[in-house]
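hi! just following up on the protien thing from before. the input was this:
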Amino acid sequence: MPSKEPWSGHRAKRSAVHNSKRESRQQDLLIAALGMKLGSRKSSVTIWQPLKLFAYSQLTSLVRRATLKENEHIPKYEKIHNFKVHTFRGPHWCEYCANFMWGLIAQGVKCADCGLNVHKQCSKMVPNDCKPDLKHVKKVYSCDLTTLVKAHFTKRPMVVDMCIREIESRETADPDEQLEILHEALKLLPPAHCETLRYLMAHLKRVTLHEKENLMSAENLGIVFGPTLMRAPELDAMAALNDIRYQRLVVEMLIKNEDILF
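and the predicted 3d structure came back as:
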C-alpha cells in the first residue's frame, strides 16, 4: 500500500536533495578554481602544483624579508684574519684543506680573533671573512675597530656610544639648564665645603667689580682658581691637564652666578 506521507514531508525531502546538489556544484566549482581534484573518500586531496609553488614562494619571501630586516642592524664589514704562528698540542687538521698538520712545533697558524687553524701556505688562500669571537677578543682599547664591531655585532664600538651618550646627557648648551645642573651638584657637597665655596665665590665676584684696575675678570679668575679648586686628589697630572678648560668654565660660572647658585 503506498505511503501516505503529508505533502510537507515530500517538500522537505525535495529541499534537502536540492541543497545537497547545490553544495555539490559549489564544491566542484571551488575545486576547479583551486586546481584541486578529489579521488575516492579514502584518497587525500592533492593540491595543484602551481598552487604549491605559489605558497612556497610566499613563505620563502616572508623568510627572506625577515632575514633582511634582521640583518639590517648587522654590519657588513670585511675583515682579514689575524694569523699568528702557532704550536698545536696533539693532532690537528687544517680547517681550510682538511689535511693533517705535520710537525712538533709551529705546525701552522691560528687566527687570534676567530680561532681559525690552517696551514701557513693555506692562510694565503683563506677568504677575508674573519668572524671574531668574544672568547678570543678580550679587550676594547688598543683593539682593531673592525675586529671589535664584528665581535659585538655593532656598527660602532659600544664604548663610544656609551661615552657619547653619557657626555651628551650632561654637556647641555642651554645656560639655564647648565645653572640648574650646577646647582644640583652644589647641593651634594658637605655643608662646610659648600659654605666655604660660597664665601670664596662671593669674594671673587667682588674682585671682578674692579676688573678695569686689576684685570681680573671672571674668566681670568677661573684660569687661576680652576685647577686648585676642581682637581680631584686621585687625578694624575696628564688627566688634570686635559680638564683645565672645564675647570675654568665651572669656576667662571660659579663667580658670575654666585648670587643664584648659593
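Residues 1-5, 33-45 have pLDDT under 50 and may be disordered.
The beta strands are 83-86, 108-111, 117-118.
cheers
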